[in-house]
């Protein structure tokens, strides 16, 4: 199994890349489809958003599906459905067909991230999960870059219908490879027994009321919300903006945006290594906080597209995406875990909430209103962490469950 799991990890990496290629195809074809279907940008926005309607709604049902049928068959079914749905857009006769197929695409693709993380948790111990997770994240980053470049080439040479057909049907070669390499999942009872063995004995140390009343949970939720808005804005609308507003050709748009996305993927690795070195000197939390703050500040550089000429498009996009890559990647890493205060200690809870919200608020509030508060928050937080240690186990478990919403890990 040791060798097989690395083969399976490579297949997961490829599947996630294809996942992002298929979800981003419509944004590449948007200018051509708007012309063929004679629809407005507002109507195109509906087509682009249809994917997310089902993708968001089916997150929880997708997790239940993976638990019920196992990783092997859940991933297989999801891959088949989303590839065929993407390919079928080539036969669309109007916007209604595209909306329906994109909703099917979103439904099926909601399974892939959950099945991928579940595979990593099931096949790698807590100490081994760093590299497999980095491979998974690399697939998320490289998928859009490859998709933009490949989609632009296919669109320029053959048109948007052929682009959807080739990318959708061509990806199906992954399915037999996965079925050949992936071992049987076992019965449902066996999977439930394995999960029960991993869970700690005794009553659950947290409740949903604790989760929903905890500022850390809402800070992380807001952070994901705001960063995802920027990320999917880039993936869905920037290709059309470069073609329709900046006058780039399809190939020119593909070269510019894919170059910026490839640079972002490289920056993820560089920022992670740099942050680890800085953390060894100033502390893990402080290093990640300031990488997040500076990264989100750099994200706002994308607004310079409004006041610069087209020759600045690549530098502006590359800088903005690299800044984003240096900040949002820390949402997928374990945050430092200082002991939290008891529920009755509102002062420390406010400090924790403020320091966690700081990287989120900087891009949207004036930096001068947030940054000066950070050193004081660090000092007060450190003092409280030294003085208050009761209920440590239960509240740390609460923090772990909140963090697992974005990057679940299993420890030995």
Which structural traits does this protein have?
single chain, 412 residues, mainly alpha, 0% strand, globular, disordered C terminus
Spell out the blueprint of helices and strands.
Elements: H1 2-37, H2 41-57, H3 59-88, H4 95-109, H5 111-123, H6 130-158, H7 160-170, H8 174-181, H9 188-198, H10 208-212, H11 215-236, H12 238-245, H13 250-282, H14 284-299, H15 313-328, H16 346-361, H17 367-370, H18 373-387, H19 392-403
Please characterize this protein's 3D structure.
The chain is an all-alpha fold. The chain is 77% helix and 0% strand. It contains 19 helices and no strands. It has helices at 2-37, 41-57, 59-88, 95-109, 111-123, 130-158, 160-170, 174-181, 188-198, 208-212, 215-236, 238-245, 250-282, 284-299, 313-328, 346-361, 367-370, 373-387, 392-403. Helix 3 (59-88) packs across helix 4 (95-109). The chain starts with a helix and ends in a 9-residue tail after the last helix. The model is unreliable at 332-412 (pLDDT under 50).
């Amino acid at each position: 199994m040791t060798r097989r799991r690395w083969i399976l990890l490579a297949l997961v990496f490829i599947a996630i890349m294809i996942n992002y290629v298929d979800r981003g195809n419509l944004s590449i074809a948007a200018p051509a489809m708007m012309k063929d279907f004679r629809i407005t940008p507002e109507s195109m926005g509906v087509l682009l958003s249809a994917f997310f309607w089902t993708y968001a709604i089916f997150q929880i049902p997708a997790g239940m599906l993976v638990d019920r049928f196992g990783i092997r068959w859940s991933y297989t079914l999801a891959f088949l459905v989303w590839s065929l749905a993407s390919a079928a857009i080539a036969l669309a006769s109007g916007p209604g067909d595209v909306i329906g197929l994109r909703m099917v695409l979103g439904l099926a693709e909601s399974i892939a991230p959950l099945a991928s993380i579940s595979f990593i948790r099931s096949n790698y111990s807590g100490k081994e999960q760093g590299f497999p997770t980095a491979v998974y994240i690399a697939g998320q980053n490289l998928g859009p870059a490859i998709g933009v470049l490949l989609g632009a080439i296919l669109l320029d040479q053959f048109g948007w219908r052929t682009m959807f057909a080739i990318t959708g049907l061509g990806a199906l070669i992954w399915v037999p490879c996965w079925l050949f390499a992936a071992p049987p999942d076992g019965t449902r009872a066996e999977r439930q027994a394995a999960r029960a063995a991993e869970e700690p004995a005794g009553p659950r140390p947290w409740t949903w009321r604790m989760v929903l009343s905890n500022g850390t949970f809402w800070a992380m939720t807001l952070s994901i919300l705001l960063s995802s808005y920027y990320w999917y804005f880039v993936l869905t609308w920037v290709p059309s903006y470069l073609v329709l507003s900046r006058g780039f050709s399809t190939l020119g748009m593909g070269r510019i945006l894919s170059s910026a996305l490839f640079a972002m993927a490289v920056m993820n690795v560089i920022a992670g290594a740099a942050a680890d070195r800085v953390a060894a000197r100033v502390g893990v939390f402080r290093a990640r906080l300031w990488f997040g703050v500076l990264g989100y500040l750099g994200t706002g550089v994308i607004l310079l597209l409004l006041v610069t000429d087209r020759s600045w498009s690549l530098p502006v996009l590359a800088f903005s995406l690299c800044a984003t890559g240096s900040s949002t990647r820390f949402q997928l890493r374990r945050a430092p875990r200082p002991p939290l205060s008891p529920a009755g200690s509102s002062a420390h809870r406010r400090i924790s909430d403020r320091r966690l919200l700081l990287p989120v608020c900087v891009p949207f509030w004036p930096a001068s209103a947030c940054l000066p508060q950070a050193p004081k928050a660090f000092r007060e937080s450190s003092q409280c962490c030294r003085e208050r240690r009761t209920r440590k186990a239960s509240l740390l478990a609460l923090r772990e469950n909140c963090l697992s919403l974005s990057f679940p890990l299993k420890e030995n």
